[in-house]
Every structure is written in C-alpha cells, then in structure tokens.
C-alpha cells in the first residue's frame, strides 16, 4: 500500500440493505486502502435487521452502522470521495447532489433483498444471495483498483 486511501460512497434509495452491505465489504476487503461510506436519497432511518444479521454471520463489525442521507456527504466538511457507486436502479436515476472533488461514478445494480417475502429463513436466504453478489463485485473493484473501476 502506498499510503493512499480511496474514499468510496455507496448510494441506494433507503440505505438499509445493499449500500450498507457494500460499505462493510469494501471496508473489510480493502485492507485499509479503501474507506467506504453509505447513504441514501430517501433513507429509511434504520439499517434492515436482516442486513445486520447477515453481516454478523459473515464476521463483519456492525457497530455504528446507520441509515443516513446522502446530504451528509455533500457538505463542505464531508470526506472527499474518489468514487460514488450506486447499487440500486432508483438511486442511479436520481439527480445526485454535487460531491466535493470530482469523484468517478459507477453503477452496479443488485436486486433489493429488503423486498424479499416469506419466512425469516427465506428472506435471510435472499440477503445471503445478494451479499454474495455484492461481495464478488466489491472484491473485483478492489482487485482492479480505482483506475479500472468501470470494469467492475
């Protein structure tokens, strides 16, 4: 590592599932060279309990995770982002705030596990599936690096 840390903002509409999963994955897989944050255009205000359950199951720390507005990251005192990733089609189509700096933009859509129906175990199975999809893509991002983020 050359000392450079890549700041990444992961966006989704509700910031309760996909964006939170990606935030944790990037932070854990990035080995200190990547710092991820997540936010939503219309945050639910609560991280989906199944998101927390799957993250804990996979060994990720969940303390401090919260559903928050993307407005927090458009303020002048916010961290400067190198990359903004949208993980849901709704957020990809919305007019985003202007981010400090000139971050690259990337859309990598995933199905919404929060929309899953059925028993607890059936819904958790959907979260596991989406977690694995996000894991593959975020590992690819970290392997390829910021310069090749578009190939994720």
Topology, element by element:
Layout (H helix, E strand, L loop, with lengths): L5 E7 L5 H12 L4 E7 L8 H9 L25 E4 L2 H5 L10 E4 L12 H25 L8
Parallel strand pairs: 1-2, 1-3, 3-4
Question: Which keywords apply here?
Answer:
152 residues; Rossmann fold; Arsenate reductase; Ptyr_pPase_sf; globular; Ptyr_pPase; 4 strands; single chain; alpha/beta; arsenical resistance; four-stranded parallel beta sheet
Summarize the structure.
InterPro entries: Ptyr_pPase, Ptyr_pPase_sf. The protein is an alpha/beta fold.
How would you describe what is shown here?
Keywords: Arsenical resistance. This is Arsenate reductase. Residues 6-144 form the Phosphotyrosine protein phosphatase I domain. InterPro entries: Ptyr_pPase, Ptyr_pPase_sf. With 152 residues, this protein is an alpha/beta fold. The protein has a single domain (6-146), classed as Rossmann fold. It is built from four helices and four strands; from the N terminus they run βαβαβαβα. It has helices at 18-29, 49-57, 89-93, 120-144, and strands at 6-12, 34-40, 83-86, 104-107. A four-stranded parallel beta sheet has the order 2-1-3-4. Helix 1 links the parallel strand 1 and strand 2 (34-40). The radius of gyration is 14 Å and the shape is globular. The protein starts with 5 loop residues before the first strand and ends in an 8-residue tail after the last helix. The mean pLDDT is 90.
Query: How many domains comprise the coordinates?
Result: 1
The first-level CATH class name: Alpha Beta
Shape: globular
Q: What is the first-to-last residue Cα distance?
A: 21 Å
Any idea what the radius of gyration is?
14 Å
Mind describing the biggest β-sheet?
4 strands, parallel
Taking all residues together, what is the mean pLDDT? 90
Please tally the β strands and state the result: 4
Beta-strand percent range: 5-15%
* Helical run tally: 4
**Helix-strand makeup class:** alpha/beta
| CATH topology value | Rossmann fold
Helix share bin? 25-40%
Low-confidence stretches: none
H and E string: EHEHEHEH
Architecture per CATH nomenclature, i.e. the level-2 architecture? 3-Layer(aba) Sandwich
Give the strand order, joined by hyphens, for the main sheet: 2-1-3-4
Q: CATH superfamily membership, which one?
A: Response regulator
């Amino acid at each position: 590592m050359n000392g450079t840390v890549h700041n990444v903002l992961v966006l989704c509409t509700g910031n309760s599932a996909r964006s939170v999963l990606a935030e944790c994955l990037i932070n854990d897989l990035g080995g200190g060279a990547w710092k991820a944050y997540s936010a939503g255009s219309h945050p639910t205000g609560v991280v989906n309990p199944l998101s927390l359950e799957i993250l804990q199951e996979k060994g990720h720390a969940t303390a401090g995770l919260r559903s928050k507005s993307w407005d927090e990251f458009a303020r002048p005192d916010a961290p400067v982002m190198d990359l903004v990733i949208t993980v849901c089609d709704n957020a990809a189509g919305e007019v985003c705030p202007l981010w400090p700096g000139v971050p690259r933009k990337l859309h990598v859509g995933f199905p919404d596990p929060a929309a899953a129906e059925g028993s607890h175990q059936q819904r958790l199975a959907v979260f596991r599936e989406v977690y694995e999809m996000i894991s593959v893509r975020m590992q690819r991002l970290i392997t390829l690096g910021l310069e090749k983020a578009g190939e994720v």
